Amino acid sequence: QVQLAESGGGLVQAGGSLRLSCAASGRTISIGCMAWFRQAPGKERESVVAVSRSGATTFYADSVQGRFTNSRDNVQRTVTLQMNSLKPEDTAIYYCAARDTPCGTSWSQSRGYNYWGQGTQVTVSS
User: Fold this and answer.
1) Do the Cβ atoms of 48 and 61 come closer than 8 Å?
2) Nearest to 98 by CA among 7, 8, 6, 13
3) Which helix (H) or strand (E) element contains residue 41?
């Protein structure tokens, strides 16, 4: 099994930045794709970004392209989401997710992920 733990959420003003981290533990050798999803109150969970096993390929949702940057460190077993130019509509609970298979074209589908963290709240004030 794999356990994921997010950290780094908080409150920030619009235009500001936050950095989220996700630490993986357990049978991490099996992990392929790792991703971030978010869920705002009253809305469905949506994909934000995903990164391949090697870290060489990253997929971004259109809504965060150019503002968010994701990186993966397989030695430290972490993924880090740097969020810049934050907007009130970025307010949500952010979840780290992982699965044993590559990202591929299904990276944005939450049902394809085996492992989930508990989530961390990000609030952007206007």
Assistant:
1) yes
2) 6
3) none
Which helix (H) or strand (E) segment is 87 a member of?
none
pLDDT digits (tens, 9 = 90+) for 70-109: 999 989 899 999 999 999 999 999 999 999 999 999 999 9
Q: Are 39 and 47 in contact (CB under 8 A)?
A: no
CB contact burial 53-70 (16+ within 10 A = b; e otherwise): beeeebbbbeebeeebeb
Token pair of 48, please? 């934000």
**Nearest-5° Cα angle at 67, 63 to 70:** 95
pLDDT in tens, 31-47: 999 999 999 999 999 99
